[in-house]
Amino acid sequence: MTPEEIQNQIIQEFEKFNDDLEKYNYLIKLGKELKPIDQKYKTDDYLIRGCQVDTWYHSEYINEKMIFYIDSVSLITKGFISLLLRICQNQKPEDIKNTDFYFIDKIGLRGQFSPLKDNSLFKLVNKIKSDVNYYSENKK
Hints:
Elements: H1 3-15, H2 20-33, E1 55-62, E2 65-72, H3 75-88, H4 93-97, H5 103-106, H6 115-138
Antiparallel strand pairs: 1-2
Helix pairs in contact: 1-3, 2-3, 3-6
């Protein structure tokens, strides 16, 4: 599936929720289900600076596809990570590069958290975009 198709699928999933509490509970459920990353990536070298909660990030370009290792101490952040991984994991850099992550607005997540948490989520999106741009230009 393309990143856009996956985003549309996520939007449809969130349409069944009646309020923000149901959305948060779903994000927490997704966060609990997210597989932890390897401990070698849970060091200061892999922390995303400026995030409200500890969030670790590493990406690789393998067999022409992007592989992400992302984890956090916050269940809601982990739920958001789970959604991002559904969209980006094992995709070609070019496909992610052209993705605008419109699902965030469509499911009502923008502005629903504290400003610091919102900032952390967008730092994560920006980190993905930065790495994808690098790999799409340097294809190693």
